[in-house]
Specification:
The complex is a heterodimer of chains A (about 300) and B (about 240). Chain A contains twelve helices and twelve strands. With about 300 residues, chain A is of the alpha/beta class. Chain A has two domains: about 160 residues, D-Maltodextrin-Binding Protein, domain 2 (3-Layer(aba) Sandwich); about 120 residues, D-Maltodextrin-Binding Protein, domain 2 (3-Layer(aba) Sandwich). In chain A, strands 1, 2, 3, 4, 7, 8, 9 and 12 form an eight-stranded mixed sheet that branches. In chain A, strand 5, helix 7 and strand 6 form a beta-alpha-beta unit. Chain A is elongated, with a radius of gyration of 25 Å. With about 240 residues, chain B is mainly α. Chain B has a single domain, classed as MetI-like fold (Orthogonal Bundle). The chains are: A alpha/beta (about 300), B mainly alpha (about 240). Chains A and B meet through helix 2, strand 2, helix 8 and helix 9 of A and helix 10 of B.
């Protein structure tokens, strides 16, 4: 009789332990790493750069790096509403305006690549072998006579802004049936140009990456490159945490320091797609690519790097 | 690579993903299911009672209300996404809730899409019940709750259709959850937003594979709902 009773107690204890363990297992949440939200341009995502950097950053700072895939215009807009923690974008004019309006506290150039004018292998506008401005003029002329098409991002992105600066320089008003506004990201725009056998401006990284995924079905080739007006520097902007109390300023600073640290810069330097380097680190010496020097910011960031042992 | 080869490669990739149990894709799939099923259930919890009330009650402007609900059935997801984004944004009126870029925000946005669909179909299926049934119920002077039970039971076919249509709209939309979820990897990336991203990156085969998974899920959920529908029809005819 008593052994039966003991058995019963034993069963009850076992059930109780199992129930408690199950409840704990369901409700136990391991200390989740903090999520960093980067508002960035399509090119850093399309090229796979952020996917490549994420594991290193996540491990080093026990963080969870995520990003919003936007054009520079939309990224700046979203950040100015306090909906992202940090910016990684490429439109110097609007970046500076963003910081000087008090939305951002610090901006620094971290890397660069360049834009290329791409077009059909037959080069119907005969724009090959000229500089960027001349190439754009020839595309517009060929467009007006019906032998070329130009596909614009048309989405207020950094690439779109560069394109508009180039048109301004040529003095051509770009409109007409030859001028198509795609209203989408870099890769979709290249694909539209590809279907139409037209011209487009792309950052080199996005174009190379798309060649590697689309192989032979992408027939466009580089028509114009290596022109100083096609330089494409990327900047990181820290947001004003007094204005946006909901953001994570510490994690954002970690990200900036990671990107400008020796480790971050060499990771960027080593990133290749199909054996081609897509981004070139340039933190600390933007004057080597013809940009204004950022001495004050660099000195400040270097001292932060040193005090955090991240050099 | 031609279009046909990419689709074939997509199918093989889909099978590989399904059998390899890829953690990332599994997470994306579960999130899609969680968001769309919750949004459909919440939409039904509000849509069916309101639809019932509108259909049974005689009031001024009933046809206007019904027309409004029917119009909202065609709400463009991206507009819903934009409006919900502006409300939930840090500088929006509901920014203090800190819901932007969370699965909960995605559920809210999709609920706004599923609610009118369920409500509208509920109204039309109750209105289409035989007037004889209503007369009978009236002559019995049945209590309200009992009357509601009978009417809802009689329109079960229509209600299940409403839920199928709402779930279909939710699981397949991309505009709303892209805006309010942000497509954050491992957190708010759903099947449709992932398909869009892979398409943008030119990885068509993976995009097709995810599309096939999406269809499979929609098919299994609908299979279950259709089974319920068939069963209720069999019961009514016997």
């Amino acid at each position: 009789m008593s052994s039966l009773k003991n058995n019963k107690i034993f069963v009850i204890i076992v059930i109780a332990v199992v129930v408690v363990a199950a409840v704990l297992a369901i409700y136990y949440q391991p200390l989740a790493p903090q999520r960093l939200i980067i508002a960035t341009t399509t090119s850093t995502v399309d090229t796979g750069l952020l996917d490549y950097l994420r594991p290193c950053f996540d491990i080093k700072f026990n963080a969870n790096m995520t990003w919003l895939y936007l054009g520079t215009g939309q990224a700046l807009e979203v950040a100015s509403r306090g909906d992202a923690d940090v910016l990684l974008v490429h439109d110097r004019v609007r970046e500076d305006a963003f910081v000087s309006s008090g939305n951002g506290t610090l901006r620094t150039t971290v890397m660069y690549n360049d834009f290329v004018i791409i077009g059909p292998p037959s080069d119907t506008a005969n724009a090959r072998g000229t500089n960027a401005t001349e190439a754009m003029i020839r595309i517009a002329q060929a467009g007006a006579s019906g032998s070329a098409t130009f596909v614009s991002r048309g989405d207020g992105s950094g690439t779109n802004a560069l394109e508009e600066r180039l048109w301004e320089r040529t003095g051509v008003t770009a409109n007409g049936t030859w001028y198509v506004s795609a209203g989408s990201g870099m890769a979709p725009t290249i694909r539209v140009a590809n279907e139409k056998g037209g011209y487009a401006i792309s950052d080199r990284g996005s174009f190379y990456k798309l060649i590697s995924t689309m192989n032979a079905s992408l027939s466009l080739v580089i028509i114009c490159e290596n022109d100083s007006s096609l330089l494409n520097p990327y900047g990181i902007i820290l947001l004003n945490s007094t204005k946006y109390p909901n953001i994570k300023p510490d994690l954002a600073t970690d990200f900036l320091l990671f990107m400008v640290s020796t480790q971050g810069q060499s990771l960027i330097d080593n990133y290749t797609v199909n054996g081609k380097q897509l981004f070139f680190p340039v933190y600390g010496h933007p004057e080597t690519i013809g940009l204004p020097s950022e001495n004050a910011t660099v000195t400040y960031l270097n001292s932060l790097l040193k005090s955090r042992g991240l050099e | 690579m031609g279009g046909f080869e990419i689709i074939v490669e997509g199918f093989t990739r889909a099978l590989q993903i399904l059998f390899s149990g890829d953690q990332e894709i599994l997470g994306i799939t579960l999130l899609s299911l969680r968001v769309s099923l919750t949004a459909t259930l919440l939409g039904a919890a509000f849509g069916i009672p309101l639809g019932f009330w509108v259909a049974r009650k005689d009031f001024h402007g009933k046809s206007v209300v019904t027309a409004v609900i029917n119009t909202l059935m065609g709400l463009p997801p991206v507009v819903v996404g934009l409006v919900v984004y502006l409300f939930l944004s840090s500088s929006g009126p509901l920014g203090f809730l800190r819901l932007l870029y969370t699965p909960e925000a995605m559920i809210i946005a999709q609920m706004i899409l599923t609610f009118p669909i369920i409500c509208g179909i509920t109204i039309s299926s109750i209105l289409s019940l035989s007037p004889k049934l209503k007369d009978t119920l009236a002559s019995l002077s049945a209590p309200h709750l009992w009357e509601a039970r009978v009417l809802l039971n009689e329109s079960k076919l229509g209600l299940i259709t409403a839920i199928i249509a709402a779930f279909g709209a939710a699981i397949s939309e991309v505009g709303a959850i892209m805006m309010v979820g942000g497509n954050l990897l491992g957190y708010t990336r759903a099947l449709t937003t992932a398909i869009m991203l892979y398409t943008n990156m030119g990885e068509f085969a993976t995009a097709i594979a995810l599309g096939i998974i999406l269809l499979l899920i929609a098919f299994s959920v609908n299979l279950f709902l259709t089974y319920l529908q068939m069963r209720s029809r069999v019961r009514r005819t016997t």
